[in-house]
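== Item description ==
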Amino acid sequence: MTRSGPVWLGSEFDNFLFASIVEDRNGTPLSVLSALARLNVDPWEEAAKLTRLPGETAAQRLASLIAALSDEPSARLDPGTIAIRLVELLPRHGGSNLPSPKTLLDGAVTTNSRVVIYGLLYVIFMAIVLGGQCTMASRRAPAQIDTASAPASSTVLPQAPQ
């Protein structure tokens, strides 16, 4: 299961995602979250999509996903009835106040653009400062070394016995 982009991960989907569909073969409740994950569908993305759909359309889409769980006991139950019950747990049917993934992506692009612009301005500023320092350093007169008092070599040779 891979995510294609930013997704709204709010807790408003918890009632829906953690609701039990049916008990699996081991007697463990199979949640919507687990069922969608088994189908390789991003649970939060799917919940957001279902929230934006009209109730009947959302129930039909969810019923088709539940029916795709062919090896689960839910396949023996009516997926439409299960889907109607589960869709009622979504925060809102139809129009939602949640930002769409596209809106979140647009906001991320705007934020990333600002970061790039500010980073570029910082690099240009630092290049100017460093260039100025190099220019100032090259204009200074080199320090004069007093060679008259310094020995020609700093190596001291041992004297041979006479």
About this structure: Residues 22 and 30 are 5 Å apart (CA to CA). Residues 11-87 form one domain. The radius of gyration is 35 Å.
